[in-house]
Description:
The structure holds two protein chains of two kinds. By secondary structure, chain A is an alpha+beta fold.
Amino acid sequence: MEPLERLLNLVGLLLETRWPLTFEQIREAMPEAYGGENLDSAKRKFERDKDDLRNYDIPLELRDMDAWGSEQGYVIPKDGYYLPEISFTPEEMAALFVAAQTGGQDPAAEQAVRKLLYGAEGGVLAGLAASPLASGSDTPSRTLLAAADAASRQRRVSFGYRTSEGQASERDVDAYAMVCRGGHWYLVGHDRERQDVRAFRLSRLTTEVADLGEGAAPPEGFRAADHVQAGPWTAGEPNERATVAFSPDVAWWATTGLQGARVSPPRDDGWVEASVPLVDEAALVGWLLTFGPDAEAIAPGAFRAEVVRRLQEAARGG
Amino acid sequence: MEAERPRAARASERLGRMLVVVPYLVRHPGTELAEGARLFDIPEEELRADLMLLFMAGLPPYDPGDLIDVEIDEGRVYISMADQFARPLKLSRNEALALYLRGTELLATPGLPEASALKGALDKLAEGLGAETLGEAGRIATAEAGRPAELLNTLRDSARDRARLRIDYYAHSSGEWSTREIDPEEVFSSLGNWYVAAWDVSNDAERLFRADRIRSAERTGEVFSPRGLSGAGRALYTPTDEDVAVRLLLAPGARWVADYYAVRDPVERPGRALELTLPSKRLGWVAGLLLRLGSDAQILDPADLRERVKDLAERTLARYRQT
């Protein structure tokens, strides 16, 4: 008997059985698989098959056969085994395929989407090969999964972390949420030592994520995205706006990237002015400086003066 | 005994995929064998052989009437008497999380045409699997960032159709616009931006283009043969011998440079400073970056870069003197 056939029959038998079956009963029901001469070698074969089933996350359970627990038997509970009914439109199914294939090879995500194919409605899949996409992340998927696991089950975790300013330390955190922003993943949670909510960029973790047990719930009205630093000059409610101008060479590139910008038609000299929310002046000044003579701070005066001050400092040689 | 081991390992792998493919075939009778093989990424002959084995499987007492019935007729598959395999195995927690994370990551990349379908699919997934498998999926979220690439769809369609494009491209490193002909092979997103891996016909070389820096793209009418270029997972910057190795000492406020650029040989220095090498083909954009960093960055090498930054500052100041 082929091993695959034996495994399929074992899964079928334990799924359909009304009560748990002991090894002896399984042996009796599947004589071709586990019968035969030597009890010990049949038992070893069965042990290996059990491992194979568990490797594929088949919920094989050992249960008491009676109220006294004098004997135990095997069963695969149907509600733990079968995928619940979830139907997907062709567009949704195609989007899931695209998602599973982003980030390069991820066998777990690909296996997940194949299981879900079952619920695909109708003649789905014509469009699947179209429009390929791919993406890359800066975090190993093991770290990503461990952090997501902690956040989605409200666990308390510890890990080594190095801040963007280079400070390295051990953190003890109630995991609240995971946020993906600009291709980077962050774990947002309550830092017990600092007694404050912090966002930890996963690519800066210096150790694995260690589970410390049950964590605390986030406060009422908690919004994870608020804690992940947004675009430097678009976060929060701006009190003022700044006017900046760009040369014809960089105007298209510069203005399409400005969130919340109001862009005016080109001036007579071809330069383009834009009004942008001014929240973090230092960040906007820094960004503008990267354009060199292709950008100019126009207003307000204090903002323009700061750009000039930075330029004079640089012209003196720092 | 020993000889059986590799075969047994392979059998478990085949079991894993059978428990997924069989329910699909039961649910969708008449599926073409070739289509099933493609969807589930199984070589067609292996799938046929596995289905023939399924034919032998069933429930006790394994009388002919209790066995699963598999028919492959004119290349189409029909399976009956397989109630125990009529629905697939549930997603494991790892599988569900992995897919949910990939989907969320894709949603966080701006300008994705499939965004609403993907959002709908992830919501159904979270609801269908429930907290038992996926935990509180609502805790895995995205935050707005980055800029949408307006031409994303044009690029993807051209990659699919192997259509050569004439593009207007802004090279940030040199600050110059250029018109080139490219053969787009793969569109991918990395760290929140969209890129296209392409053959640059005009320069006869493989290049990566950032999709949001392409101002216009038109098909030339030519069809190209793909060279198998791919982008996902590769370094966005490929250092070459011609690179200038810019050595910098960064104060804490400028350490973010290490997160955003492909840097080499980082060394921790006192006062949480970081010394590193920023390899670069052109010094123009590096000067702009150094202007931004100001006194937070000290240039260790090459020395003439200091003059270059001063010069850039002077030229920029000139604008402010005119007006």
